[in-house]
C-alpha cells in the first residue's frame, strides 16, 4: 500500500551546509534502494519531510530517522494513503529557504513565521505539490 507521511522536526544545534548535504546524499542512496521518494524542506531551523512509498518501508525508515541526533522534536503531521506519488522522480529532493520559496511557505502558513507544526496536513500536502509544480526542488 502506497502512503505519504509528512513530519516536522527541529535541527539539533547548528547544522552546516555540509551536514545537510550528508543527510540528503545518504537519503538519496538509501531511498532509491527502498523505493522511497520525497522531499526534505529546511527553513527557520525546522525540517519538514515528505516520504512516499510502501507503508511498511516508510514506517521503518521514519523510525530510523527518529534515531538521528541531528534533529529533535519530531511530530507526524500527516499520514495518508495515496494512489500516486508527487515525487516519483526524486529519491530525496531538497527544498531550501530561498526568497521565492519563503513566499510560498507563507501562503500556506497561519503565522508570519514558517511553522509547519501549526499547519494542517492538507496545507502541507499542497505546499509540497506547489514545490514540485514550480520546480522549486533541487533534484535528487
Ligand atoms: C531530517 C532528516 C531526514 C532524513 N531523511 C532520510 C531519508 O529520507 N532516508 C535516509 O536513508 N536517511 C535519512 N536521514 C538520515 C538517517 O537518519 C541516517 O543518518 C541514514 O539513513 C544513515 O544512512 P547510512 O546507513 O547509509 O549511513 C535523515 C536524517 C535527518 C536528520
Write up this protein:
By secondary structure, the protein is α+β, with helices and mostly antiparallel strands. It has one domain: Alpha-Beta Plaits (2-Layer Sandwich), CATH 3.30.70.100. It contains four helices and five strands. The chain has a five-stranded mixed beta sheet, sandwiched between helices. Strand 2 and strand 3 form a beta hairpin. The longest helix is centred in the first third of the chain and has 18 residues. Bound molecules: flavin mononucleotide. The site of flavin mononucleotide has 16 residues, from helix 1, strand 3 and helix 2.
Number of domains: 1
- The name of the CATH topology is Alpha-Beta Plaits
- Side-by-side strand order of the widest sheet: 4-1-3-2-5
Per CATH, the architecture is 2-Layer Sandwich
SSE order, as H and E? Answer: EHEEHEEHH
CATH level 1 class label:
Alpha Beta
The averaged pLDDT comes out at 93
SS elements, strand count:
5
Structural class: alpha+beta
Q: What percentage of the residues does DSSP assign to strands (E)?
A: 25-35%
**Amount of helix:** 25-40%
Q: How many helical stretches?
A: 4
What is the secondary structure topology, with strand pairs?
Layout: E1 2-11, H1 17-34, E2 37-43, E3 46-54, H2 55-66, E4 71-81, E5 93-95, H3 99-107, H4 121-133
Parallel strand pairs: 2-5
Antiparallel strand pairs: 1-3, 1-4, 2-3
Flavin mononucleotide binds next to helix 1, strand 3 and helix 2.
Amino acid at each position: 500500500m502506497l502512503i505519504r507521511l509528512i513530519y516536522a522536526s527541529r535541527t539539533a544545534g547548528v547544522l552546516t551546509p555540509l551536514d545537510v548535504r550528508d543527510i540528503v546524499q545518504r537519503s538519496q542512496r538509501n531511498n532509491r534502494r527502498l523505493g522511497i521518494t520525497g522531499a526534505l524542506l529546511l527553513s527557520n531551523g525546522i525540517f519538514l519531510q515528505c516520504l512516499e512509498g510502501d507503508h511498511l518501508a516508510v514506517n521503518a525508515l521514519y523510525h530510523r530517522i527518529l534515531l538521528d541526533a541531528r534533529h529533535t522534536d519530531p511530530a507526524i503531521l500527516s499520514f495518508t494513503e495515496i494512489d500516486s506519488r508527487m515525487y516519483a522522480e526524486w529519491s530525496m529532493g531538497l527544498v531550501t529557504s530561498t526568497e521565492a520559496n519563503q513566499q510560498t511557505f507563507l501562503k500556506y502558513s497561519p503565522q508570519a513565521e514558517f511553522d509547519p507544526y501549526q499547519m494542517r496536513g492538507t496545507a502541507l500536502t499542497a505546499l509540497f505539490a506547489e514545490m514540485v509544480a514550480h520546480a522549486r526542488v533541487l533534484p535528487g
